[in-house]
Amino acid sequence: ISWLCADIVLTYYYFGLGIKEHPVASIADAFWFLGYGFLSAHLVMALKAIPVRFDNIKNRIVIIISSIVSVSFLIYSITRTLISFDFHGLSDTVPLFVNITYPMLDLILIVPAVLVLVNLRKDYELSVPWFLTSLSLLVNAIADDGFANDVASGNSHNLLFWDLFFITDYLIMAAALFWFNRFHISNEIKKSSKIKL
Q1: Are 67 and 108 in contact (CB under 8 A)?
Q2: Computed over its alpha carbons, how large is the radius of gyration of the chain?
Q3: What is the largest CA-CA distance in the chain?
Q4: Percent of residues in the chain assigned helix, strand, coil, to nearest 5
Q5: What's the predicted TM-score (pTM) here?
Q6: To which H or E segment does residue 52 belong?
Q7: Do 80 and 149 form a contact (C-beta atoms < 8 A)?
Q8: CA distances (Å), 25 to each of 49, 68, 101, in order?
Q9: How do residues 2-40 score in pLDDT, each as one tens digit?
Q10: Quick check: 103 and 144 in contact, CB under 8 A?
Q11: Measured in whole angstroms, how far is the alpha carbon of residue 134 from the centre of its chain?
Q12: First and final CA of the chain: distance in angstroms?
């Protein structure tokens, strides 16, 4: 819902205000940042519900490998953004902060998503939506990195390409929600109605 609000704000900028160029920092970014908070809360609840054992050697290896990959990608992404960003003064501080924050938020979510995915791989009904959710976060991270870099470097003609990644991200996320609703929530409702009878 938060990300939908962000898209509605951008649609209003485009059609209502006639601003054709995507703003580097806007109210839409606040809604996107808020959405990351909800995703983080969901992942924390999932980690508690599984439950994930951190003394397990497999989980430690997953945490170490995914953290190394995430931190490496984050350093690369921030370095690339800083190099390509056209910084003129204090007025560019907020856009620079926004461009750097997206990859950081994406990569913070990837480590727990991979951890949940690894611990649910034997549970077919739950592993499929988590695989799709993890894939969605990865596609989103790639799109955020490319989008932020092209906005920072002024290559606005490439933004449509990254929009295709965002659309793919939303479609994968919708598939995950559909699968979860169809095979998990529906089964839980059936079980609870049988118990009541």
Answers
A1: no
A2: 19
A3: 69
A4: 85, 0, 15
A5: 0.68
A6: none
A7: yes
A8: 36, 29, 11
A9: 888 888 888 888 788 777 666 667 788 889 889 888 888
A10: yes
A11: 9
A12: 35
Token pair in block for residue 37: 């908070």
Q: Among candidates 150, 32, 167, 29, which has minimal Cα distance to 84? A: 150
Measure the CA–CA gap between 33 and 102, rounded to whole angstroms: 8
d(CA 91, CA 95): 8
Structure tokens at 177: 């929600």
Query: In b/e form, how buried is each residue of 25-44, taking b as 16+ CB within 10 angstroms?
Result: bbebbebbeebbeebeeebe
Percent of the chain past pLDDT 70, that is, above it, reads 76
Read off the tokens for 107.
Answer: 């990569």
Q: Using alpha carbons, list the distances in angstroms from residue 184 to 52, 117, 193.
A: 20, 16, 14
Q: Which two tokens stand for residue 62?
A: 């997953």
